[in-house]
Amino acid sequence: MAEEVLAFRNVTLGYDRHPAVHHLSGVVARGELIAVCGPNGAGKSTLLKGVMGLLSPLSGSIARPDDGRRIAYLPQAAEVDRSFPINVYDIVALGLWRRTGLLGGVSRADRERIAAAISAVGLDGFERRTIGTLSGGQMQRALFARLLMQDAEIILLDEPFTALDAATVRDLIALVERWHGEGRTVLAVLHDLELVRAHFPRTLLLARSPVEWGETRAVLTPSNLIKARHMCEAWDESAHACEAERAA
Amino acid sequence: MSPYDLFIAPFAEFDFMRRALVGVIALGLGAGPIGVLMMLRRMSLAGDAMAHAILPGAAVGFLAAGLNLFAMTIGGLVAGFAVAIGAGAVARATQMKEDAALAAFYLVSLALGVMLVSLRGSNVDLLHVLFGTVLALDDPTLLLIVGVSTVSMLTLAVLWRPMVVECVDPGFLRSVSRAGTPTHLVFLALVVLNLVGGFHALGTLLAVGLMMLPAATARFWASDLTALVLTAVLVACGSGVIGLLVSYHLGVPSGPAIILVAGGAYVLSVLVGPIGGILLRLMPRRHLEA
């Protein structure tokens, strides 16, 4: 068994005491490529925020590497201010943050890496373009280049291929597979089940509570998908305190 | 009137004009970049709110010690920091957005200030606080303004990266660093410091003008961040110098003259600015090939 890099121990994450992810347990081993699937409101984005430590669990715990440097995170429709006067080169260079910090310089080797990352996502010649002039697909390519610069061991992607054309998805999924080949751990929230079946060996099907977690083929069955759809409609303003938590 | 009489003589002949010149240039150097960051954070009106928050603090300082630089500065700083940091903390700790928190805090500060002034029951002349006295900057006031400007530029130099990333992609900053919240609070503190520095010269309300008008003007001339900051500093310092000359030659109050010159630069830029200016948009031009 490969080394555990993430462990969910009966974790419940949510907002205002309402659970968005309810009693999830399981472990992620180094090098796994996992799709997180489920209907809207299933808690997928919340789960990634929990892994990043941006949201504290309501109960239970998430064990992750102590060194935050090892995790990179691309949020859903990244909250990038596209009107901000910054160019592609600088946005990609931000991926060096963990190393350069406030005042650290960018070395010649770094500049070569930035150029290579921009090239790897197919944005050659766009270095000096401000981000406001990029299309949605080009912006996502730039953000993937920034992920390349982060050189993280665990990469969290929240709906990274939404609203992208087929060619862009193909190029970016090739990067995800490259990371997998390099032994990095990738968790990606995805809605395109065909894409998941084609490229992701393992899947967590989430509908607030976990429906199933394992081999993609065994998880994405018609019965599991119907179950997930029904489980997701349960937000209740006047819900009682969770009995399972009391028992625990 | 020769160019020398027009541009140089007022500064060459009068000590108070030279002091005012140093004051407005120092103010412009600090306020320029801060104004650009405020504009890019969509906080252009927050500066105005903060200026209202500072006013009662300065007034209380005035009540306690009269026209005393130290008392009024401390009063302004305390009120400004309390409002800025309180609103920033509430916005980050609760679901409330910062603009609403800031509105709540500055209104309370303003009301408290008015209450304190009226309890004291004196008919205070607050014209100094409201409109400043850029033509009467004494040594300590000038040192304060230059000090604020120096602290601002040094702080910006050190925290420039997180301040920029906080504007462009706050989610990314949260994912790689815990610098976001402290950086934001330091930024708000810089805004307060510059407003307090500015109120001695321009008054609390007009001090915001030297921050926001040059930044808004620069947006029509520059498209990258460095050029934006340099243009804003240039416009701020230029408005200061031209405003002083206008005030000297026409015998009008200097604070409003400086801000009106900055306002004139803004209106001109809205009309003829090469980046998104109205004239350029109205001009029929053939579209490009790619």
UniProtKB/TrEMBL annotation, chain A:
Species of provenance: Ancylobacter defluvii
PANTHER family: IRON TRANSPORT SYSTEM ATP-BINDING PROTEIN HI_0361-RELATED (PTHR42734:SF5), METAL TRANSPORT SYSTEM ATP-BINDING PROTEIN TM_0124-RELATED (PTHR42734)
PROSITE patterns on file: ABC_TRANSPORTER_1 (PS00211), ABC_TRANSPORTER_2 (PS50893)
GO MF terms, alphabetically ordered: ATP binding; ATP hydrolysis activity
The organism's place on the tree of life at top rank: Bacteria
SUPFAM superfamilies: P-loop containing nucleoside triphosphate hydrolases
Protein's UniProt keywords contain rRNA processing: no
Similarity comment: family membership: Belongs to the ABC transporter superfamily.
Domain ABC transporter: 6-233
Keywords: ATP-binding, Ion transport, Nucleotide-binding, Transport, Zinc, Zinc transport
Designated name of the protein: ABC transporter ATP-binding protein
One Pfam family per UniProt: ABC_tran
Gene Ontology biological-process annotations: zinc ion transport
UniProtKB/TrEMBL annotation, chain B:
Gene Ontology terms: cellular component: ATP-binding cassette (ABC) transporter complex
Record-annotated membrane-spanning stretches: 20-38, 45-64, 70-91, 103-122, 142-164, 185-213, 225-246, 258-280
Annotated signal sequence range: none
Membrane topology, record value: Multi-pass membrane protein
Principal location listed in the UniProt entry: membrane
Pfam families in UniProt: ABC-3 (PF00950)
GO biological process: response to zinc ion; transmembrane transport
Location(s), subcellular: Cell membrane; Membrane
Keywords: Membrane, Transmembrane, Transmembrane helix, Transport
Recorded family membership: Belongs to the ABC-3 integral membrane protein family.
PANTHER family per the UniProt record, alphabetical: ABC-TRANSPORTER METAL-BINDING PROTEIN, IRON TRANSPORT SYSTEM MEMBRANE PROTEIN HI_0360-RELATED
Stated name of the protein: ABC transporter permease
Organism encoding this protein: Ancylobacter defluvii
